[in-house]
Write the structure tokens for this entry.
Amino acid sequence: MLVEVALPVPVPRTFTYRVEGGAEAGTRVLVPFGPRRLIGWVVGPGAEGTALDRVKPVTRILDDAPSVPPDLLRLCRWIADYYVAPLGQVLRTALPAVLSDTARPDPPVRTHRILKIVRELPSLRQRDEIFGRAQRQRACYEFLESIGGSAEVAHLLERAGFSRPVLQGLVDKGLAVFTEAVVERDPFSTVEPPPRQTFTLTPAQRAAVEALVGAARRGGGVGVGGSFGVGSGSGTGTGGGATFLLRGVTGSGKTLVYIELLEEVVGRQGRGAIVLVPEISLTPQTVARFRAHFGDAVAVLHSALSDGERYDAWRALRRGDRRIAVGARSAVFAPIADLGAIIVDEEHEATYKQSEAPRYHAREVAIIRARLAGAVCVLGSATPSLESWENARTGKYRLLELPERVAGRPLPPVRIVDLRGAGHRAAGAVGGAGAGAGAGSGTGTGTGTGTGTGAGAGAGAGTGSGGGGRPILAEPLVEAIRDRLAKGEQTILLLNRRGYATFVQCRDCGAVWHCRQCNVSLTYHRARRRLVCHYCFHEEPPPVTCDHCGSGDLSFRGAGTEQVERTVIETFPTARVARMDVDTTSGKWSHHEILGRVERGEVDILLGTQMIAKGLDFPGVTLVGVINADVGINLPDFRASERTFQLLTQVAGRAGRGPKGGEVVIQTALPGHYAIRAVVAHDFEAFAERELEERRGPRYPPHLRLANVIVSGTVEEAVQEAVEAAASWVRGLIAAGEAPGVEVTGPAPCPIDRIRGRWRWHFLLRAEQAGPLGRALRQLLVRHPLRPGRADLRLAIDRDPVALL
Ligand code: ADP
Ligand code: ZN
Ligand code: ZN
């Protein structure tokens, strides 16, 4: 019998194989593919009319029962269609890595050695006789008894402190035996969940819970079949009622609303649920709250899990031993049967978009999956994406609001410190006069990316200020921190830029040090004494003299977190300071460790990048300071203002969550910018209104559908030629009437026009409707040859991009 097999290769099609007796869709198979062997998934019966003699047989069937349940397969098909990605690649992304490991087609199931009592000793006299003076053996035997008759050998040796001879002694006496048992690896089982809190719901929380529970009881909305259809979907399609946008200001108690919904769906209805968080190591408290409420029903799909642990968690969910999956982006694929709810916390976060193929957005996938399953989908945020906001305003999603913080606590007042003001008495002024950096992104492409501007703009450097003698900590912020230290309260400081100096510049000729592989400036890391590229990780020693003019007058400009840390320590020598950014969190559990210290009050000042802005809930934090609000605001990307607004609002929301209240101090050179003004006023709606206007000319989402097509390669002329050919191919498609309503903008070099030695050009496709846009993209991928003979050229399609850099 012939079957179609999806393989994880970058080719937009499936492949036909022969298999004795057939195989169900969703079954894993090992197949020959050219000189290689690959693991793929049977996705359906083979194409009619394929010549039997040319079809190869599958090497082996790897699953007894299909590893991909039908609903997941259907979801993956939708993703493959919508995001224009090969189905095999989507399946590989959706399933645990061990399932597509060709080197080990049969994923190892880990067994553990167990010591198990085989003979009971009911009387004390018997025990005295048998053990005599072997008191450790007796202790071990009684320990085993006390924990149910068996224990893992490793546990007995490492935790309980018995020696090997003691264990062997029990075996020799015929009291116990060694056996093997399959063990689930769950690193969280050893972490005590925090005590469960009980609160009376606020009226706003109650209203939200009632709406959600009501929908869950009605079966979530349209259910299977509904309006679902390839190309018309992406959550903004028609129908529904199953998708809710929960807009609640920071500290309004959104987590409790999620928990109450799960009490209904999982607790009372016995169904399953998925909770998505932007990054699990940054939201330990949210995760802990779910564990406190639902205990063993929860599987935490932590990014620090080994592949084996991940696979264990996956199997526990697949068997129904655990009903709630909590995890980042890929948890949207958790194998949960009878799904009742999907929660997308902080739905605006860019981490929900995968940056390589398949470039799916977990929020959109969640909406589709919920719709297919008849589940309730809740998108929660204090600063919703404009896409979700627009869908809520037009009634495609139902809007639920928590307009106030719990317990009558006010949102913290926000104070602006204008960095342009001269004469700030300040700590740690960044040296160096002179004009703004030559590496600036200053072409002002902003919302005009793709229209032919932006060539060579070195995003990443000079996009913030930091130079020009501006203070790191201006006097008002220094005062505010000093006050907190005196009172024993905590401070959070944000600077969304790591390293010591974002770029090095020659004061005489203005040259800026760039990466040789990427068109971005190199960041100076002081502790390591290296210049580092944040895109390709290239490193080199810092320069002593200028390569161009030989001058020794170099300035290290654009402060990063490392420099802020130094300034803070110099200014407040007795304060306990912790820094959290990519450079301090390389260990598997290091986030956990830093946040634990903050929670226990062992840290006075926590400073870091956007990592510290997420869901942290520390009542002792009464001050939040933003070192430079303007980092990122001028990036040549249409979402730059939105991101700035979201980041600042989120970090501001860390202040004043306890009874002592709190305040926010924002240092900026752009106090008049609408994003910053909206943060000061805590006014999301004002921001959204203005931003929606900004995105009308040229038009950007949510006013229309967008796709970014990027061509890259090592030879710039070849890239340019290929991207021009691809763009005109699409223009031809439009002229032929095959892509109604689709418009092409560009091509142009990407704002960062070289990464890892590859030149990058792009063009944009805009359309009113998702359907024709999707069809045009699929045609482009399948029918347009990318310039034969140039093997290193690549074409990437990014649908609903979250950034255009
Ligand atoms: P958000 O996610 O909306 O920022 P959280 O869910 O983190 O807010 O809740 C903020 C704090 O308020 C948490 O410490 C939580 O335990 C507490 N909380 C939530 N609901 C209530 C309530 N009804 N009464 C009192 N405290 C509450
Ligand atoms: Zn020079
Ligand atoms: Zn580089």
Summary: The pocket of zinc ion (ligand 3) is lined by residues 515, 517-518, 533, 535-536, 538 (CB under 6 Å). DSSP finds 20 helices and 32 strands in the chain. Confidence is low (pLDDT under 50) at residues 220-241, 429-468. The first helix runs from residue 70 to 82.
